[in-house]
Write a structure and sequence with these properties.
single chain, alpha+beta, Beta Polymerase, domain 2, seven-stranded mixed β-sheet, two-stranded antiparallel ribbon, 20 helices, 11 strands, 50% helix
Length: 407
Amino acid sequence: MQIYKVGGAVRDRLLGLPVTDIDRVVVGATVEQMQAQGFRPVGADFPVFLHPSTGEEYALARTERKSGHGYGGFVFHASPDVTLEEDLIRRDLTINAMAEDDHGQITDPYHGQDDLKARLLRHVSPAFAEDPLRVLRVARFAARYAGLGFTVAPETLELMRQLSESGELQALTAERSWKEISRALMEDRPDVFIQVLRDCGALKELMPEVDVLFGVPQPEAHYPEVDTGAHILAVLQQAARHQLPLTVRWACLTHDLGKDLTPPGLWPRHIAHKRRGLNLIKAINERFKVPRDCQELALLVGEYHTHGHLALELKASTLLELLQSFDVYRRPQRFHDFLAACEMDARGHTGLEDRDYPQAEYLRGAAKVALAVAVPPLVERGLQGKALGEALQLERLKALQSYKERY
């Protein structure tokens, strides 16, 4: 029985990056031998065990062959006869197909170290094209390591293109797709993830609502980059730069979907694109079974982001309606996330990345003023039910009017 660290633990150590998760593969062992040593089996599809003391995962070396469509369409074979090289060749990228023993000795049959030095994301074997999930994984790795200069090898990008055109991406479950998408959006360069998907034709298969934004023009006076798709990438990059949460990053990706529905004859203006885009945001939310908090913020940002930009021009009554739309009295954080998305939208322009955004501070102040309106004095006046609600609204409106006059 021989035990090796494999995959990301080896890759990241060689890159000088922190190692968080450690995967181990066991060569030359049977299920019975593992259980005899106290390892607890947990794998449903292939033999994976938990260490009796540390709880870390150990997987038996295995081979696989394609048996159907999609991510789950594989038959696995694990036995003591499976070699380390046979186990490594089924992995996606050469930089993930290295192993390290307890003495620090590296086994690298597919030249992963060479590709680390060349900063290339290259597939291990033609079997790469059997698993559609790898398209998303490679794009995610590109987003993670773009800052180190990594790019996708041309021949790997071609295989990704073939996978995208094969229809196999449609076999991915919503859950698996969202897991990769959400992880990629939280990488340092989520814009690279979207760009790589577009480069290989996967974006139009998975998120056609986003793909069609490339080539849609916007007014150059407000959008120096002109292209709506390029703007979306810039907004995502700003969201990552400011280390914003997943809810905000998803909203940044989807906020301008309605601009594709503008008739070309009206370009580059996009009047009422916000409301027109809501059904598209709903569709993409449903397709990937996006978590509720991400869904809700995406829809609110899609509908109201121009309110954020025009905040200082809004009437007090419109300010009040905006605060109510976000249920700011019970869910203040959602409103703050909205302001963050609006700020990223404003900064997602060529040459304007560090611009001031006073609208955010103004709207935070408006929310604070509305929240400060006290209910007890109204109750003491004998108001209740509908009358109490109307009086509370009136007092909040007065407070916002006063705030607007003072600002």
